[in-house]
Structure formats: structure tokens, C-alpha cells
Specification:
With 459 residues, this protein is mainly alpha-helical. The chain contains 26 helices and no strands. It comes from Lupinus angustifolius (Narrow-leaved blue lupine).
């Protein structure tokens, strides 16, 4: 049509390629911009830097930034906010903080978005003291914190159990005329319920409603979860039942939480009724739903029903995970079906599902319990060959099995090996070996270990 594209057209195209993770095409558009004699602008550079960050190539984004600056172009707050966000997303919070310092000393005054990004990342990493220091720094420098700042800090304080300080931030927000939003209240309500502090959680809920913030499905899910955690499942069911009247429709999480609550109390019949209700309402159960039910069925001795549910998972295309199989393996072991449990471990590995330390610990414990210590040793050796890092629990179980068979040299060798693998023996390790030695009248060896135990401060 003989209409020449201009800088706007080319920037739009370049930005599209960046969002499609087609960075080679995006840079070819930059070449086209230069070829046509247009001047790339901040929008062009920001799109390319954002594209590199979105594709996870932060190193290239930083190198490109340096090249652009070297060519004499000036970049803006959006550029640096993008780079800081990219660094935080890959866990490079320290590098993001260093970039913030560099911007402050050489380029421009950092803004609230840059600070918020780093504070949020620090809070998620549980580095709350550093996050609070950065918050204080913002205030001193005249950068006003906003709802995002406070929400991040509240979340960080909650996950490290500092609930009093998290709640105190509500007062700070009120002084600065910042209204808490649904996310702010949900964070606090959920934290109090998870700590079993039901009275304070419900008081916060009342404050939330009084402030004109309408509870949503996340709020009600926290409420249901909180009641289930303190075994008040009837109250949880009442909240669940009244949700539609309050304008919130129960979702898959609502059902999964309540199903898990019922299963923990061995009320598997009620859990199954809820599961059927989900299917009637076309709410697709997820892996968490199935795992709760399978675990509940296993613990109530209905193993055949659990296997049927596993088959249903596969038929529905819902992937089972290591938690699913751990419930089944644990039950097989408790029923002394150890050959079947060992076969299940192999099946898990063949399916590409990585067993965890708990999987191996359970199997080794029960093999030792029935005197099959040689098989337990093979499983433990297989565990080590697979590259797993043993914890003190699995080592103690293996040591207990070896002591049952009077294999004291092997037990002591494993105790020594624990330290080589930076897995320090605990009081249980020593007590297991000492008691076994005393039973066999090996008093001198037992006394040596007792002295070592005292020297380590474990007694």
C-alpha cells in the first residue's frame, strides 16, 4: 500500500515480539528502525529490556542496558523498575539492592515501585529485618509507602510469626490515610487462623467488614481452614454452607480444605459426600483433593477404595504426586505388605515421580521392624546412589535396624558418615546405639558413647 512504517508502528511490532518471547525477531525490528534512519527511543529500549527479563535472560538485559547507556542514551524509571523486578524474580535480591544504590547515586531518585519490588522479594525470602530497614529508609528519604509496601511487609511478618507487628502496621496505614484492601486483610486473617488464634482472626474479620471490605472466597477459605486446624469441622462446614448467601461461591480450594478437615478426623464418609457434590457441580477436583481423600481412605483401612481413587485420578488426567504415593506406601507397610511397598517405590521411580526422604524412611523403618534389615540396607544404599541427602531421621531409622541385628560396627560407621554428610547425630542417634549396646552387655562401648553424648551437650 506504499505506506512506510514509522517509529510508532515498529515499536508496537517490536513490543509484540518481546511479549511472545521472540527476542531475535524483536532485535531484527530494532535493526530495521536504525536502517530506516529512525531514532530508537526509551519505549524501544524498555520493551527490549522487558522482553529479555520476561525470557529469564537478566544477564543479557543488564548488558544491553550498559550498551545503551554507553551509546549516550538516557533511560527512565520504568527501565530500572523492570531490571530490579527481573533480578528479584530470579532470586538475585542482593543484586537488585545494589542496582537501587547505583541508580540513586548516579541516575535518579528511586521510586516507590523499585523499593516495593525489593521489599516484596525480601519478605518472600523471610528476610524481614532487611525489608523493614528498607521501608524505614524509604520513609526517611521522603518516598511514601503505599498499599503494596504494607501488604508485602504484613505478609513477611506473618510468615515468620510476628503477627503483633503485622497488625500494628494497620495503625500506620490509618495514620497515612491508606485504606487496607482485601489482600491486606486476607493475609492477616489467614495468618491468625494458621496459628490457631481463632478469636483474633474473627475479630479481624469484623474489623474488615466494618471497614467496608467485603470478604471474598479467599477469606472464607481461610476461615474454613482455621476451624479445621483446631478440629472444629462443624463450624467449618457452617461457613462453607453459608458462603453462597454471603456472595461467595465455594471453589475447588474450599472443597479441598473441608475434605481434608473431615479426613483428618477420620470422617471419610462426609469427605466422600463432599467429593461427590463437587462432581455434581462440575467442580474439577485437583491433586490436593485426591491426596486428602486417598490419605483419609488409607488411614481408615479402606485401601482398595484408595487404589480406585488413584485409577480415577489417572483416568481424569489428574497427575498423582509423591504425596499421593506416600499415603499408599505407608499403608502397605503398616499392613506388612512390604514386597508390594517395595514394588510401588520402583513404580514411582519408573513413572518419573521423584520419591522424597519420607518415602524411603517409611519403607526402611518397616523393613527393619520385621527383621528384613538386609533389604533395608539395599534400599538405603539405593537412596544414597540416587543422590539424595540423608537427614537425621532416615539415618536414625537405619541405625536402629542395624542395632536390632547387633551390627554395631555398621551402626557406628553410619553415625560417623552422618557427620561427613553434614547431618549431625542427635540425642536419638546416641540413645539408640547406647541402649542396644547395654542390652548386649557391651557396657564399656556404651560408656564411651555416653561420654561423647555429654561432651556434645546432647544430655
Amino acid at each position: 500500500m506504499r505506506i512506510n512504517p514509522d517509529n510508532f508502528t515498529l515499536n508496537i511490532l517490536l513490543n509484540c515480539y518481546c511479549h511472545l518471547d521472540k527476542m531475535d525477531y524483536a532485535f531484527s525490528v530494532l535493526a530495521k528502525i536504525l536502517k530506516l534512519g529512525y531514532e530508537p527511543n526509551t519505549i524501544t529500549f524498555n520493551a527490549l529490556i522487558n522482553g529479555l527479563c520476561l525470557s529469564g535472560d537478566i544477564k543479557k538485559a543488564l548488558q544491553f542496558h550498559d550498551t545503551v547507556i554507553g551509546l549516550g542514551y538516557r533511560l527512565n524509571a520504568i527501565t530500572y523498575g523492570t531490571l530490579i523486578n527481573g533480578l528479584c524474580k530470579i532470586g538475585q535480591t542482593e543484586a537488585a539492592t545494589q542496582l537501587l544504590r547505583k541508580i540513586e547515586s548516579k541516575v535518579m531518585k528511586p521510586n516507590v515501585v523499585m523499593y516495593n519490588t525489593i521489599i516484596d522479594s525480601l519478605c518472600k525470602d523471610k528476610l524481614i529485618t532487611r525489608a523493614l530497614h528498607l521501608y524505614s529508609e524509604m520513609v526517611v528519604k521522603g518516598i511514601s509507602p503505599d498499599i503494596v509496601t504494607y501488604s508485602s511487609l504484613m505478609y513477611g511478618l506473618c510468615i515468620v510469626g510476628r503477627l503483633k507487628e503485622a497488625t500494628d502496621l494497620l495503625s500506620d496505614m490509618a495514620m497515612k490515610n491508606i485504606d487496607p484492601n482485601i489482600y491486606t486483610f486476607n493475609t492477616l486473617v489467614d495468618a491468625f487462623f494458621k496459628e490457631g488464634r481463632v478469636t483474633e482472626a474473627t475479630s479481624l474479620l469484623a474489623v474488615m467488614i466494618k471497614a467496608g471490605v467485603k470478604p471474598d472466597v479467599v477469606t472464607y477459605n481461610s476461615l474454613i481452614d482455621g476451624y479445621c486446624l483446631v478440629n472444629e469441622v462443624s463450624k467449618a462446614k457452617h461457613v462453607f454452607s453459608t458462603m453462597p448467601q454471603m456472595g461467595a461461591t465455594p471453589n475447588v480450594q474450599s472443597y479441598s480444605i473441608l475434605i481434608n478437615g473431615y479426613c483428618k478426623l477420620k470422617m471419610v464418609g462426609e469427605a466422600m459426600n463432599l467429593f461427590k457434590e463437587m462432581q455434581r457441580k462440575s467442580i474439577t477436583p485437583n491433586t490436593v483433593t485426591y491426596n486428602s481423600l486417598i490419605d483419609g481412605l488409607c488411614k481408615s483401612g479402606r485401601l482398595s477404595h484408595a487404589w480406585k481413587l488413584l485409577d480415577e485420578m489417572h483416568d481424569r488426567g489428574q497427575p498423582a504426586n509423591v504425596i499421593t504415593y506416600n499415603s499408599l506406601l505407608d499403608t502397605l507397610c503398616k499392613n506388612h505388605q512390604l514386597d508390594e511397598a517395595t514394588a510401588l517405590l520402583k513404580k514411582i521411580e519408573d513413572q518419573g515421580i521423584q520419591p522424597n526422604v519420607y518415602t524411603y524412611t517409611v519403607l526402611i523403618h518397616w523393613l527393619c521392624n520385621v527383621g528384613r534389615v538386609e533389604t533395608a540396607k539395599q534400599v538405603f544404599q539405593h537412596f544414597l546412589i540416587k543422590g539424595y541427602h540423608p537427614n537425621v531421621r532416615i539415618c536414625n531409622v537405619m541405625i536402629w535396624g542395624l542395632c536390632k541385628e547387633d551390627s554395631f560396627d555398621e551402626a557406628l560407621a553410619l553415625k560417623s558418615k552422618m557427620e561427613e554428610n553434614h547431618c549431625l547425630p542427635d540425642a536419638v542417634t546416641f540413645e539408640t546405639i547406647i541402649l542396644a549396646l547395654l542390652e548386649k552387655n557391651k557396657n564399656e562401648d556404651a560408656e564411651k558413647l555416653l561420654s561423647e553424648m555429654i561432651a556434645r551437650g546432647l544430655l
